[in-house]
Amino acid sequence: MLRFTILGPVSIRHGDAEAEIGGRQPRVVLALLLSAAGSSVSVSEIVDTLWEEDPPLSAVNVVHRFIGMLRRVIEPDLPVRTAGNYIVRSAAGYRLRADAQTLDLLRFRALAGQARQTVEPDGAIRLYAEALRLWQGPSAAGLETVSRIHPAFLAIDAECSLVAREAADLALRHGLLTPVIPALRRAARLSPLDEALQARLVLALAADGRQSEAMATFHAVRRRLDDELGIDPSPELLDAYERLLHQRALPPSAPADRPSVPMQLPADHPFFSGRAAELVRARALLGEDQRQARPIVALAIDGMPGVGKTTFAVHLGHQLTADYPDGQLYADLRGFSDEGAAMAPAEALRGFLASLGVPLSDLPPELHALAGLYRSILANRRMLILLDNCRDYDQVRHLLPSTPGSLAIVTSRTRLTGLISSGSGQPLPLDLPDRDEARTFLARRLGGERVTIDHVAVDTIVDRSGRLPLALALVAARAAMAPGTPLAEIAAELAPAQDFVGFGPASATHLRAVFSWSYRALTAEAARLFRLLPLHPGPDLTVLSAGALAGVDTRTGAHLLGELTSHLMVQDSDGRYQVHGLLRAYAEYLSERHDAPAQRRAATLRVFAYYQHSAHAAHLRLDPQLPEPVPAPADVTPLQFRTQDEAMAWFTAERQALTDVVRTRMDDARGLAWRTALTMQDFLHSSGRTPDWVDIAHAGLDAATLDGDVGGQARLLRSRAGALFMLRDFGGALRHLRRARRIVESVGDDAQLAAIDINAAYVRGAQRRYADAVGHGEHALAAYRRLGDVRNQAAALRVIAANIAGEGRRDEAVRLLREALTLSNSVDDTRGAGHCWDLLGTIHRQVGDRRSAVVHWHRAAANYRRAGAPAARAAVLLAIGDLHEQSGDRGAGRAAWIEARAALGDSAGPLARVVQSRLVVNAPLTLDPHWFGTAPS
User: Fold this and answer.
1) Cα(131)–Cα(113) distance, rounded to whole angstroms?
2) 814-832, pLDDT tens digit by residue?
3) Is 306 left (phi over 0), alpha (psi -120 to 50) or beta?
4) Which among 552, 533, 531, 530 is positioned nearest to 541, based on CA atoms?
5) Using CA atoms, how far apart are residues 567 and 577, in angstroms rounded to an integer?
6) C-alpha 378: how far from its chain's center?
7) Alpha-carbon span 883 to 892, nearest angstrom
8) Peptide bond into 705 cis (omega under 30)
9) pTM above 0.85?
10) Per-residue pLDDT tens over the stretch 466-524
């Protein structure tokens, strides 16, 4: 059956097979036709959309050619110069014949119309939910910027938002919230600035008992409106917030807050076939598991590279999801990636815990503590965990559930004997598919008729692909893109290779022949980028980093990646590109033979420079304390960031690539390495990756030492001291600071000396050596005054005030904090101002002035919100709630606790558990002052 989609990515599907539409411009033409939903689109509108201004003289002819291409994609057997049954010519242009069975937009409209006419609320809600499930993303997703500015696509998105609001109103009126909340969440993500829709999501979540998520949603929208539009929430959104605070939106029997339910399982392969015996074996093992005295908690799938382990594991996972209703977790452990690229167990645990709702600021630094928290959260849940590309048992043993309610599926190239011998795992080896399974796969991908006609050629393809699923998939993609090419011709191109050096098992010896076909189909520019891919740091790449690697502009880089995606790469849902390990090895094989060492080195330096300069730009949004780097090369375009959230998200996505840059052994990249290490400091600190911070600072220090840069050495010694301080290794921190001081004194850098004094003041204060700490702070203050550095004058005053207060001299501490606050406000240091208000509130609380303490803490919370410091804000709101409760105003106390819980999201961390305990039992707590909550930087 033929189907078209526009509610998300544009596509044409013949049954289960997605047709290859071609490049960007034909996709834009198709998107315009689909958006019209059967109405005519003029040729002039198509021309204006494709070229915007200055179209070529041949523009109309090009449009006609694209129409002809689309007709043949829709109807592959259509003769040349034949109109066909779907795209028809009208007086001024073209229209596409479609109905509710073939076009998702028309089906969406039909379902919404039926819902509006259905009297019975349950039935109407079901119809609304079914309609909203069709909305898979912004209309014509992937065709930005056209899809974000063209009125037709904007109107479709607005129409979908309207239907989502109608569904929410009906659900709220009748209390039928559960069926529509997933659709409302997705709709709200797709229309982040639709305040009416966001208000309904807040009300729906609150009415369904999800107060914490509702609160978090409101504050996220408020920040987005402030950051992107510079406006306050609308009266409708504020009313929803007020209803939430006073529980006017909640039914009397609203359930308690529900835990976060991650759904991370990758999409199932649309052409999966075969593996029936292995699927039966898995089910049998799990059936036996339920009768065992010691049930298994893991299935260990092993097999050669390219045999389809990940595809099989994902398919099995989708079959099992109903048995694990509390969600799925997924991690690519990169166990067999390039040296040093494997994911550490602690990093995987941090990602899982964040997905389970634990704020990064609440994560403990030690591996065993992370594992204990993870297992505690899993103990009362039934979850599916997919651990892909595992190196060995040590990499996964801390990631396995400890109770039989959850199941881990682990894939590896090697047999995980430690997992199996422990008794908690069962082996599920995956061999090459047999010939019948290979033929079935090709039939599903290419259609049974085509495979039957050329059955001899199919057998040749199966044999010359070595029955390896990766190779079969590449050949099938080639055949699908050339529907008119006989399979015998494609089989002839797969002449057996003599060897396949460095590519593992003998059964894969024909892979080079398969890969070489895809490589030969590339243009020269795309082939060059493919050969350079192994030089790219990290497990994946983006358009910008690919452009830097190839030394081309962003548009060209996107075009080349699009070409590679058609042949040798995949693009994930986050817009990042990945290449299979075998293809990466093949690319390296080619590059060593075709690219000169100087060219390879230049490409590496370009992409390293892209990461270093982008990381510096991201750092500026977190804590701008580093000097400007040397200018970026002319052929490198670093990223720029508007908000702290953008910067943190980028650091999270690129952490492995940045780590690879820091750890490079290239002599002429040492400067890039240590400068990148410095830019990562605030991200690693804020995200709770303190052990990684120690390692990155150490690697950066080695690079700066080899580079001979004493300023870099001093800064990295200070950075490592900060990490050790956070681990409460005060002796180690002081040793690093003394080394840094000796270096800085030798070059006479007063600013660095002052920074070292600030660092030492924090460490001495934590040791309760208040007099020493005050001395260091005063030295720093004098230096910053000479240098005219207002921001750091305020920082020095805060640390002096903290230690004076520790000695009991509170009036003097208040005076210094008022001075620091004035300085911080003068340079728009919002976080620093928040810290001042926080400390002032703590002092007022200590002397019994509760009213002043609450006033000051509210100001601190407002500053922390604007500065993007959720944990600090939550701690202040918790203290406010405690004081209100102690004063007898339980309503105000509960409101503050609810807001604190929302600031942390659906967290299971220590601070979140304290806040949650208030909401359950109203137990009071006296917080310690926040004197030493920030690492020296």
Assistant:
1) 10
2) 999 999 999 998 988 888 8
3) left
4) 533
5) 12
6) 22
7) 10
8) no
9) no
10) 677 877 887 787 787 778 788 888 787 765 433 333 333 433 344 665 677 678 778 89
